[in-house]
Amino acid sequence: MSGAIILALRLILAVALYGFLGWALLVLWRDIRRQGISLANRRVPSINLTVRHGRGSPIVKNFSQPEITLGRDPGSDIPLIDDTVSTRHAQLTYHHNQWWLEDLSSTNGTTLNQTAVTMPTVLTAGDEIQCGDTRLIVNLSTNTLVSPTQKLEKKR
Fold it and tell me: Which residues fall within 8 angstroms of residue 51, CB to CB, at 6 or more apart?
């Protein structure tokens, strides 16, 4: 009789163990699925860049992707036709709910509001990025565009 009781207890313990493992895997699967849906629904806020080279007319470009590359490379998101710009000059990235500017070890460097960029720096609306002779004005909201002339008037 004691052998039958031990066998029954072992079976109950095995069923309880497998039940616990199944429950733990179900909870993990639901959590991973919820995080996947959350990441898929996360939106990158759009950024508008007004590109001006020398005295040429400004070009406004709108982006809603998390990474934007600047440089002479035709494959760049913003190809800059400027001999003073490196092939891969700078990069804008969106993370931690902010847009960041990073110089990609360019030859002539990148400036943000006339200050050299030596490490990733947070961007704000109306900032001016300069890569060689090309200037870019940052607009973080499509509703409040800052024109290049407004930006220059603010500095005076």
Answer: 58, 59, 60, 61, 78, 80, 134, 135, 136
The pLDDT of residue 148? 45
Instruction: Name the nearest CA neighbour of 127 among 117, 141, 113.
Output: 113
For the record, the structure tokens of 8 come out as: 């029954």
Contact 109/116 with Cβ under 8 angstroms?
yes
**Average pLDDT over the chain, rounded to whole?**
86
Reported as a single tens digit per residue, the pLDDT across 126-151 is 999 999 889 999 998 644 444 444 44
Residues 125/144, Cβ–Cβ less than 8 Å = yes
Spatial distance between the Cα atoms of 136 and 69, rounded to a whole number of angstroms: 13
Q: Which helix (H) or strand (E) holds 5?
A: helix 2-41
Q: Is 29 left (phi over 0), alpha (psi -120 to 50) or beta?
A: alpha
Handedness of CA 35, 39, 40, 43 (dihedral sign): positive
- pTM of this prediction? 0.65
